[in-house]
Prior knowledge:
Helix content is 64%, strand content 0%. The protein has helices at 14-21, 25-34, 40-51, 55-69. The model has no long low-confidence stretch (mean pLDDT 94).
Amino acid sequence: MATNDKPQGPASYFPSIEKRYGQPIEHWMGVLRQAGPRKHMELVALLKADHGLGHGHANALVAWFLAQRG
Length: 70
């Protein structure tokens, strides 16, 4: 039986984020690391206000970032 190799969850947005904003995902992870300890929606607001990301893309990046931190 074949497995589904397509990214699931927030990572499914990564190709469109990289294409639309011209930066690799690691760039955005660095932006979020530099933002310091903030709540989910505070980080989403930062990406939207300071970097012009749309809500869905910002939310996907923050969800992935916070999940990786544990």
